[in-house]
């Protein structure tokens, strides 16, 4: 009887061993299948392709973004072909993407490498502020190269606190911008953009320049406005201070108006005009300095630093007139200056005849 019990116990133990063995095999199989699935998924995401153009380019990631919107944008630009795969790869490898401007190159072949590039340092954006003719054109340029919108810029620079701080009127906003090349991060915040512009304004208008402006009896915005007219009159540096002197002579002489052609062109809003006609001079605009006394209400374009300093360090003389000189080979474009109307009439006739020969009537 004992032998029979012992034999039954042995059979039970063998049965349990067999069951455990099958369970072990099944677990091994499950682990292998799971590992295979994981490895397949890992390899699929690891090798997921990205297509970058042969030249280096930039990818802009907006401040308020999510993976889905970014994936859709990259698909639209044909950098990736499968937005879902991009999202899965980012989540699987736990890439932390930040907003900004990022450089990518044709060396990038996979989504993984693309995501790594989007983790690299935010690339600064170079912004050259110069030669912009109006505030709107300047703001369009800025909003085209930075994430800040034109609406945000309008709000930022039409704030009553801003006007009061810098003693500006709405038509004088352009005078706040000192021409230079600046570096910003593409996703710079509006308030940080303003701070940098304020720092440049305060650095430029040092005690020496402010003292010179005070000696002229003009505000900083008025200095800039006159400089913008000088800027529009000539690109020839050596004569800028002489032209500034002519306009200051006119401002100081009772009964004289500036009569500056560039202000008429600005009032017309047609910057293709090469010859101001008598009909144009009739335009009723506060910017028409043939019709209204004194300086126009604000700058007619951005003024260069050279033109601003030409006003502050104007040349003292008794010239009251000037007109463009007939262009000569191998000579820079310049002007003829005159002390009285008779001298000016001779110079003006020469230039009019040249315009007629070239059939430039407007």
Would you give an account of this structure?
This protein is 50% helix and 8% strand. The protein has three domains: 57-117, Dna Ligase, domain 1, CATH 3.30.1490; 124-204, no CATH class; 207-357, no CATH class. It is elongated and about 85 Å long. Helix 10 crosses helix 13. It has helices at residues 2-46, 67-76, 83-92, 111-117, 135-145, 150-156, 160-166, 190-204, 207-216, 220-233, 240-252, 261-268, 305-312, 341-357; strands spanning 57-61, 100-104, 124-129, 180-185, 321-324, 335-338. The strands form three sheets. It has a two-stranded antiparallel ribbon. A two-stranded antiparallel sheet has the order 3-4.
Main sheet record = 2 strands, antiparallel
| Terminal-residue CA separation | 129 Å
Which class of secondary structure composition applies to the elements? Answer: mainly alpha
Strand order of the largest sheet: 1-2
Radius of gyration: 36 Å
Average pLDDT number? 84
Number of helices: 14
Say how many strands there are.
6
Strand content: 5-15%
The oligomeric state of the chains shown is single chain
Roughly what percent helix? Answer: 40-55%
| Coarse shape | elongated
| Tally of individual domains | 3
Low-confidence stretches: 33-48
Defining traits:
mainly alpha, 3 domains, two-stranded antiparallel sheet, 14 helices
């Amino acid at each position: 009887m004992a032998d029979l019990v012992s034999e039954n116990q042995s059979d039970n133990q063998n049965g349990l061993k067999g069951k455990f063995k099958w369970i072990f095999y099944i677990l091994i199989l499950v682990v292998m299948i799971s590992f295979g699935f994981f490895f397949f998924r890992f390899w699929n995401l690891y090798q997921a392709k990205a297509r970058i153009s042969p030249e280096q380019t930039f990818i802009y990631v907006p401040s308020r973004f999510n993976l889905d919107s970014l994936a859709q944008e990259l698909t639209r630009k044909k950098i990736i072909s499968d937005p879902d795969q991009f999202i899965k790869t980012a989540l699987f490898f736990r890439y932390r993407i930040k907003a900004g401007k990022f450089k990518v190159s044709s060396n990038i072949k996979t989504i993984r490498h693309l995501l790594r590039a989007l983790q690299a340092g935010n690339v600064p954006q170079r912004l050259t502020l110069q030669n912009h003719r109006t505030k709107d054109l300047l703001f369009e340029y800025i909003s085209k190269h930075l994430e800040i919108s034109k609406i945000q810029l309008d709000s930022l620079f039409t704030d009553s606190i801003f006007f009061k701080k810098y003693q500006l009127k709405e038509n004088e906003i352009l005078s706040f911008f000192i021409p230079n090349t600046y570096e910003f991060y593409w996703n710079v915040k509006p308030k940080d953009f303003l701070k940098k512009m304020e720092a440049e304004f305060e650095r430029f208008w040092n005690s020496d320049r402010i003292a010179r402006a005070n000696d002229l009896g003009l505000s900083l915005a008025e200095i800039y406005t006159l400089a913008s007219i000088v800027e529009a009159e000539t690109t020839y540096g050596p004569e800028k201070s002489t032209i500034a002197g002519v306009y200051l002579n006119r401002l100081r002489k009772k009964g004289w108006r500036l009569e500056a052609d560039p202000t008429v062109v600005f009032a017309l809003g047609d910057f293709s005009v090469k010859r101001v006609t008598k009909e144009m001079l009739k335009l009723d605009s506060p910017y028409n300095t043939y019709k209204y006394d004194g300086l126009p209400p604000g700058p007619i374009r951005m003024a260069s630093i050279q033109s601003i300093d030409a006003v502050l360090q104007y040349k003292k003389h008794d010239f009251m007139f000037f007109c463009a000189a007939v262009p000569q080979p191998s000579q820079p474009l310049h002007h003829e200056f005159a002390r009285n109307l008779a001298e000016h009439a001779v110079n003006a006739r020469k230039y009019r005849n040249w315009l007629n020969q070239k059939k430039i009537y407007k």
